[in-house]
Amino acid sequence: MDGQDSTRKSRLADSAYYSPYSQAGAPAAHPNGNPYAPLRARALATLEAMGYDPKTMVERGVVWAEDQDPFGHVMHSQYMHFLGTCFHRVMESYDEYLTEQEYDDMIHARKVVPVIKKYELDIKRQVKFPDSLIAAFRQEQILPDRNIGTTSLFSLKQQAIVAEVKGYVIYMDTKTGRAADIRTLGGGWTRLFEGFTRNGENAKRLKEAWDAEHPKSKSREGKAGPSKL
Question: What CA–CA distances, in Å, run from 213 to 136, 170, 175, 203, 206?
Fold first, then answer.
């Protein structure tokens, strides 16, 4: 527009993650520019190198009217909302190992279901609009009756993990209400146990390699950054 500063930052570009033109299949380049594309590429490369599973990642843009508190920070309750979609994606990945019937039985709680038993949320940094966050899961260890993992939120703008959940689900027999050893169920459940064991071993190798290349300084070790939202 005439008289408008051409160097001024575009607010539409700042929230380009809302637009369908940011997605694969768009017929043309993003009409407002898309500053998140290179940030997303760096974020995904970092997360994969840290051992996070690319198949179950979820991206969620921060919504100005829904996600902020009166101080302009993303509310802590929203962190779990963002992470919860990734939890569901992990459960959907069971489809790789279970038969159609086994998966259907799990979804409808007919036999054995994964149930969140315990988790701890560590809010490491404040997040403000505009930004887009990637929720990513890293397999840590699977035991006969439970699955242990780490799910993190990675900010595209900050290029850092802003929140992290460590916890586990138990595999509960819906008829007894008790934990079940999925190795004894046979079929796809045995394949799932073996597959997630391999996933955990691979994730551990990647994380150890990342930690060796990116040692934490003593001054930063254990430092969580601002977390009062």
Answer: 21, 34, 48, 15, 11
For the chain, give the longest Cα–Cα distance. Answer: 73
Could you give the CA distance from residue 103 to residue 100 in angstroms, rounded to a whole number?
Answer: 5
Convert the pLDDT of each residue in 158-185 to its tens digit. Answer: 999 999 999 999 999 999 999 999 999 9
Q: Is 54 helix (H, G, I), strand (E, B) or coil?
A: helix
Residues comprising the chain, all counted:
229
169: number of Cβ within 10 Å: 20
Q: Is 3 left (phi over 0), alpha (psi -120 to 50) or beta?
A: left
Q: What is the pTM of this model?
A: 0.86
CB atoms within 10 A of CB 33: 13
Measured CA distances, 14 to 63, 155, 157 (Å): 12, 14, 10
For residue 140, the Cα-to-chain-centroid distance in whole angstroms is: 14
Amino acid letter, residue 46: T
